């Protein structure tokens, strides 16, 4: 029996090294878009894109390796879409908090996240949040991300009369986005593994061929320095005297709470890991996620999360941590391709954001729309995020109304103490986000 077999229990799981490595490659190709999308989004906050590229890859390596050896699951971890959007558009651009100080919020949230995982508080709070609200949060973030993509691709523009309007179709770069969306849509419909990544590559190539995107001087280079982002969050701890920062920390904790937990359970069901409606070693998986989030905060990127794209690797036979380890190894190799950042423009990443939004709103189908006391808070979460351009407001709207409507419907006993506590937490959060003066 080989070391690989003993470590990852390949024979017991009816798999092989070849099968696991193929699954890891499939997962990597499916989620590699984050290497370019994350620098693009955090770049809007003023962060150095090269440093974010490296931080994204290294935090993914840390997460995948930890998931492989601690939990032995075929689930990859990397900086998540949703958290980066909240960081850039809600915290930095919305509240006016400079990105170095905002990164302090990520660092503090990561510490809290790790402690909550180690002491198993995370599972307690996750279980206390109604499933319908969890689903609504995923869908709302999906709509928000898609809206960001539509804007970045030039398909939606600001309008004084109607707030938003269709962008000009006479702008050549907008057609890059249209091409990318259609291509990824076709690939997804045909169930092609890595559809998002392949569509991103094809869109970039079209831009290069047509001259809409300038070709880089070279394609291989050493990984960009982490110096612009390394440890920045630790240098601005004094910002924690601003009450709004604690609201930011809370939102990062809440979003990270639900994102990874829901994804882990869904993937475990797909992989046949669930036993008696429970996920074995979920504690180890949550610890792997939380430690990688802490590492990412130090490196200079937003929170990590388990990736739903891991389902692609699971679908081709991934069953153990060797799949995640292979994905981590490919992220290490990708560090040599940072010059491609200049090729991956907003119009190239926009289709990825739009399609990921589609995938995230699929959770809408499982919400109990026939129960108004549940449907209304869920709807406020979903619609609140894109319309206020703020993830935290959307979450707050739903958590404020859910206990009240459930009580009005005669279902007060179904609302647990944690939900009532969160109601008051979000009242304070809304006050802090709206009443306190903005940072300069």
From TrEMBL:
The chain crosses the membrane at residues 21-38, 50-70, 103-121, 133-157, 163-189, 196-217, 245-265, 286-308, 320-341, 376-405, 417-436. The keyword Ribonucleoprotein does not apply. GO terms for molecular function: purine nucleobase transmembrane transporter activity. One of its GO terms (cellular component) is plasma membrane. The keyword Cell membrane applies. Its main location: membrane. Keywords: Cell membrane, Membrane, Transmembrane, Transmembrane helix, Transport. InterPro entries: Azg-like, Azg-like_bact_archaea, NCS2. Belongs to the nucleobase:cation symporter-2 (NCS2) (TC 2.A.40) family. Azg-like subfamily. This is NCS2 family permease. It comes from Bombilactobacillus apium. The lineage of its organism: Bacteria, Bacillati, Bacillota, Bacilli, Lactobacillales.
């Amino acid at each position: 029996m080989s070391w690989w077999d003993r470590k990852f229990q390949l024979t017991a799981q009816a798999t092989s090294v070849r099968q696991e490595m193929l699954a890891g490659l499939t997962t990597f190709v499916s989620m590699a878009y984050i290497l370019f999308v994350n620098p693009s989004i955090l770049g809007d906050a003023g962060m150095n894109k090269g440093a974010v590229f490296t931080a994204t890859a290294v935090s993914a390596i840390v997460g995948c390796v930890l998931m492989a050896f601690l939990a032995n699951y075929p689930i990859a971890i990397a900086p998540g879409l949703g958290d980066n959007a909240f960081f850039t558009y809600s915290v930095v651009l919305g509240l006016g908090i400079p990105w170095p100080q905002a990164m302090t919020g990520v660092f503090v949230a990561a510490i809290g996240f790790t402690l909550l995982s180690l002491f198993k508080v995370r599972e307690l709070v996750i279980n206390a949040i109604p499933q319908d609200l969890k689903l609504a949060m995923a869908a709302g973030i999906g709509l928000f991300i898609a809206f960001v993509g539509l804007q970045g691709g030039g398909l939606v523009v600001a309008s004084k009369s109607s707030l938003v309007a269709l962008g000009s179709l006479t702008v050549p770069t907008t057609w890059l986005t249209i091409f990318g969306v259609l291509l990824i849509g076709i690939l997804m419909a045909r169930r092609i593994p890595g559809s998002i990544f392949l569509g991103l590559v094809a869109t970039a190539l079209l831009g290069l061929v047509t001259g809409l995107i300038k070709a880089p001087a070279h394609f291989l280079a050493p990984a960009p320095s982490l110096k612009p982002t390394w440890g920045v969050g630790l240098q601005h701890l004094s910002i924690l005297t601003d009450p709004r920062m604690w609201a930011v920390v809370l939102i990062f904790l809440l979003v990270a709470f639900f994102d990874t937990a829901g994804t882990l359970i869904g993937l475990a069901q797909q992989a046949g890991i669930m036993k008696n409606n429970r996920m074995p070693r979920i504690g180890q998986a949550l610890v792997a996620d939380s430690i990688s989030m802490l590492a990412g905060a130090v490196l200079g990127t937003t929170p990590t999360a388990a990736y739903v794209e891991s389902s692609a690797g699971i679908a081709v036979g991934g069953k153990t941590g060797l799949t995640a380890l292979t994905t981590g190894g490919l992220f290490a190799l990708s560090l040599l391709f940072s010059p491609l950042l200049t090729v991956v423009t907003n119009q190239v990443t926009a289709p990825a954001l739009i399609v990921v939004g589609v995938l995230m709103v699929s959770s809408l189908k499982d919400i109990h729309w026939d129960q108004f006391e549940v449907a209304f808070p869920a709807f406020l979460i979903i619609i609140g995020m894109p319309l206020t351009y703020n993830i935290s407001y959307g979450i707050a709207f739903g958590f404020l109304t859910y206990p009240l409507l459930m009580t009005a419907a005669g279902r007060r006993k179904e609302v647990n103490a944690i939900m009532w506590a969160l109601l008051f937490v979000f009242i304070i959060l809304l006050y802090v986000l709206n009443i306190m003066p903005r940072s300069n």
